[in-house]
From TrEMBL:
One of its GO terms (molecular function) is nickel cation binding. Belongs to the HypA/HybF family. This is Hydrogenase maturation factor HypA. Signal peptide: none annotated. NCBIfam families: hypA (TIGR00100), PRK03681.1 (NF002979), PRK12380.1 (NF009046). The gene is hypA_2. It comes from the Bacteria. PANTHER family: HYDROGENASE MATURATION FACTOR HYPA. Pfam families: HypA. The keyword Metal-binding applies. Involved in the maturation of [NiFe] hydrogenases. Required for nickel insertion into the metal center of the hydrogenase. Ni(2+) binds at residue 2.
Amino acid sequence: MHEITLCQRALEIVEQQAMAHGAKRVTGVWLKVGAFSCVEPSALTFCFELVCRDTLAEGSQLHIEEQQAECWCEQCQQYVQLISQHVRRCPQCQSDSLQIVADDGMQIQRIEIEKE
């Protein structure tokens, strides 16, 4: 389960930014999860709550945006969205010459804080 490591690193960044802006606590965190990141949103939520205990972010609301599995089809010459990350054929022409466009990482999009 790599979600715990992702959450620990995200919390480090969240706390650094919160303290730099004089926060007394973090009330919300918005994460964007790449379609090919192999991150399970329910595991991410569980791990986030776990790593936030006894920190500025304890009790904060986690918002997760899941990116769509988007690829460029060489055959169709257009962007297509895959129904599943495991199906690597163009839904338009069934070609398997796809270039992945979607991200495979996780980004902190926004942090909501309360100031002193």
